Amino acid sequence: MKSNCVKWRATLAHKDTEDMQITIEFDAPQFSDNWNYKLLAKLAFIKQITMGEQLVVNNVEPIETKEE
Q: What is the 3-state secondary structure (H, E, C) of 11-36?
């Protein structure tokens, strides 16, 4: 982490499905009105996805089942 940065936490949510949320932590400058922290959080999330080895799927389960 750079010396002028601090850890931030952001919760990202799907705009149509409020139950679908992901919380991430990222480094960003200390608070200032000059920074768009929502954009920085989105960029940090994209970076974490593209660097796949940092992302681990802990659990997968169905939320709907189809009876046949």
A: EEECCCCCCCEEEEEEEEECCCCCCC
Provide mean pLDDT across the span 37-64. Answer: 86
**Residue 9 binned pLDDT confidence (cut-offs 50, 70, 90):** very high
For the record, the structure tokens of 6 come out as 């601090």
Helix (H), strand (E) at residue 7: strand 5-13
Q: How far apart are CA 54 and CA 68, in angstroms?
A: 38
pTM: 0.69
Rounded to whole angstroms, the Cα distance separating 10 from 38 reads: 8
